[in-house]
Amino acid sequence: MTATARFTGDANPYGGGDPYADYRTADLPFTDLADLADRRLGAGVIAANDEFFAERENLLKPEPAEFDPERFGHKGKVMDGWETRRRRGTSADRPHPTDEDHDWALVRLGAPGVVRGIVVDTAHFRGNYPQAVSVEAACVPGSPSPEELLAPGVKWTTLVPRTAVGGHAANGFVVAAEQRVTHLRVNQHPDGGIARLRVYGEVAPDPAWLAALGTFDLVALENGGTVEDASDRFYSAATNTIQPGRSGKMDDGWETRRRRDKGNDWIRYRLVEQAEIRAVEIDTAYLKGNSAGWASLSARDGESGDWTEVLPRTRLQPDTNHRFVLPEAVRATHIRIDIFPDGGISRLRVFGSLTEEGATRMAERHRELAADHRGRGH
């Protein structure tokens, strides 16, 4: 584990105006990856030992933390994050907590995966943030209860060792553990508040589940699909196009700036593994005056080589889900959508099934990640 940005100490007391004006942050190398703790994927904070001042569920809210200097409740200042009470020692002679005293929260990831980076965001916690944080990971199948996760037999691997953090800051950590993770235990030493938790990484789906499904969405984020690159991310993220469910508003899709040249915009995706594609959906929900005018799809089998057009340039309608059955199955590892000339789409669905080669590679990768976890657990 390497800290990419190191912030320590209190931030200045809030002095009015924009509360983010003195927020401490930095460019982090992993934030283009999927947030495995995204609520849209089904993530949740399933338990915490203490949430006296602010509820644990706030940790995974998708929007940045808000701050209202005038908002107080019966327990004190209302904060948009997870905040525990102040820890105390055992007596007047020992008023301070011990070095081992700490608070914790259990987080179920929305999709199992390999964690590449974590952000512990202490926005607006200026003098009431934890002195240090640590993060541990486990891989437990099924839907375990908090009691089952905390049982003695569960192996936890340290992703972020106990590290000092700063208040009102995005504290970022690169994670090097090559293992499949389903749950995290987030610790704050000894107490305090964390506004948001972001867990960036690569989805590692269960091969047995996908094999049972047979035909599934090969590019869906929850199944292991990935956006590799996009021509433009001006208004919204290209990764939105492979999020679960239908888009619920305009910025829940992908929209580009207005082009003033004769080019076009595009997104390139990596499928979960090599597969046979049979059908495609292109949805422009909530994109009305700004939907793409036309779209085409191309496929490629392998990391390089020529692209083969599988859907010719086709007129799209605003705020509409378009379905296409391909005339024959197309073997591919990557797919690319080109939109003309600009605009956006809300979702792309690519339906098919894994080839024997793709299924074998996925199973081997699954075993490698499990073996690494067995070797590192403690």
Describe the structure.
Helices cover 8% and strands 39% of the residues. The protein is built from three helices and 22 strands. The model has no long low-confidence stretch (mean pLDDT 94). It is mainly beta and 378 residues long. Strands 1, 2, 3, 7, 8, 9, 10, 11 and 13 form a nine-stranded antiparallel sheet that branches. Strands 14, 15, 17, 18, 19, 20 and 22 form a seven-stranded antiparallel sheet that branches. The two termini are 16 Å apart.
Features:
single chain, 378 residues, mainly beta, 3 helices
Helix % is: under 10%
Rounded mean pLDDT score: 94
Radius of gyration: 23 Å
Q: In percent terms, what proportion of residues is strand?
A: 35-45%
Which sheet architecture does the biggest sheet show?
9 strands, antiparallel
Given helix and strand content, the structural type is mainly beta
- General form: globular
In the predicted model, the low-confidence regions spanning at least 5 consecutive residues are none
Distance between the termini: 16 Å
- What is the β-strand count? 22
What is the succession of H and E elements? EEEEEEEEHEEEEEHEEEEEEEEEH
The number of helical segments is 3
